[in-house]
Design goal:
Length: 65
């Protein structure tokens, strides 16, 4: 069994960096860690756009304090 932790490492205007860590169940230290960046873009122009307000509000709850 494994456990996966997720947090928002950086919240920008048009992008969010998600950070993940994989743990053996009950272990305090991660076996693996990584991240990926999601950029919100306009479908037609393929240029970055501000993320929707509702999504930003939800992501703010995942930013470590």
């Amino acid at each position: 069994m494994i456990e996966i932790g997720l947090r928002v490492g950086k919240l920008g205007n048009s992008s969010v960096r998600y950070e993940l860590a994989i743990f053996k169940q009950g272990e305090p230290f991660a076996s693996a860690a990584g991240y990926f960046v999601h950029v919100f873009v306009d479908r037609e122009t393929q240029k970055p756009v501000p993320m929707p307000t509702a999504i930003r509000a939800a992501l703010e709850r995942l930013v470590p304090s």
